[in-house]
Amino acid sequence: MRTQIFSILDFIGFRSSLYLRLLRPGSLVILNFHLCDNLLLSHDDANDFFNWLSLNFITLDLSNSSISLHSQAGSSHKPFLAFTIDDGSYAIHDRLIPFAEKFRFPFLTNIISSTLVDSLTPVSIRFQRLLADSTESQLSSFSIPGYPRYSSFRRRRWILGLQKYMLLRSSESYSELVDSSSPNLCKLLEDYSKCERMLSAHEIRALPSNFSIGNHSFSHLPMNLQTFEFFKNDFLESCNVFAARNIAVQTYAFPFGLSLPEQVSWLFSRGVTNVLLTGNRASSLSESVHSRIDFSASSVSEARFRASAILRR
Ligand SMILES: [Zn+2]
């Protein structure tokens, strides 16, 4: 149904990229490929999509501290485009690097720095995978204080709701909830520790030259729910991890896109050049705090619509 709707819109004329004219001059569309598995296109379709992007946008490198200079870059009416990839999964080698190399698009890869220390898949990702891979009877056995028992009629909604319920909380509150849940979530999450291979420091340094690296925190916790002290220490620890591995970072992507204004101001006082949130709307070259589009598409038609920043998910 979803695919048919976007195909029909393509058919009635949107294929001509008419909707891109709805973007204001100086608009910057930032597509975020979270873990790469939301690029649900075949290789050929993804190739078509990236080709369409290259024809209709001017691509920018977000790690460049002076992206606003591009706003004077000329008379083109094309909107601007940047790519980010959050978390640092090794899967970018299969899913994105071939296109990045072919089209020479700059990609900003936001790394969770704890993964460079322990090589473990971050808890938030392990939890998502654990739920996605669980059988109906396993999900039915879950007892999470304060969260409704599993209903097979609403599997997807129940899982998404539980992810938010578990992950969007302070570190203390998360630990308490995991401890009081049944079955023992700590044990289950430990068993899923190897479910997603993360990039090593060596692999990051060996990425193609059009890849730059951004800071995606040390702990990957929702920073708007942590104390200011926790946030500062997390950022400084993350900077130390990158510096010790000779990896240059100038940008910061908030985990889950969740931030507080004083945290954003503090980052700029520490030399961060661009701050990345979510929000699923277009940003602009005149901003330093950017909304991004969490990209997901299962057809080329849908991909073009998502990239136009018209639709909010
Ligand atoms: Zn993330």
Overview of the structural elements:
It is globular and about 55 Å long. Helix 12 links the parallel strand 5 and strand 6. The longest helix is centred in the last third of the chain and has 17 residues, at 228-244. Strands 1, 2, 3, 4, 5, 6, 7, 8, 9 and 10 form a 10-stranded mixed beta sheet that branches. It has helices at 2-11, 43-56, 92-95, 97-103, 114-118, 123-133, 136-140, 155-167, 171-180, 185-191, 201-205, 228-244, 261-269, 300-307; strands at 27-34, 58-59, 80-87, 107-111, 211-215, 249-253, 274-276, 283-284, 289-290, 293-294. It folds into 2 domains: 2-119 and 196-307, Glycoside hydrolase/deacetylase (TIM Barrel), CATH 3.20.20; 123-191. It has 14 helices and 10 strands. The two termini are 16 Å apart. With 313 residues, it is α/β, with parallel strands linked by helices. The model has no long low-confidence stretch (mean pLDDT 84). Bound molecules: zinc ion. Zinc ion is lined by residues 86-87, 216, 220, 255.
Bound molecules: zinc ion
Give the termini distance in whole angstroms.
16 Å
The description of the largest β-sheet is:
10 strands, mixed
Structural class: alpha/beta
CATH superfamily (homologous) name of the largest domain: Glycoside hydrolase/deacetylase
Describe the structure concisely for a colleague.
By secondary structure, this protein is of the alpha/beta class. It has helices spanning 2-11, 43-56, 92-95, 97-103, 114-118, 123-133, 136-140, 155-167, 171-180, 185-191, 201-205, 228-244, 261-269, 300-307, and strands spanning 27-34, 58-59, 80-87, 107-111, 211-215, 249-253, 274-276, 283-284, 289-290, 293-294.
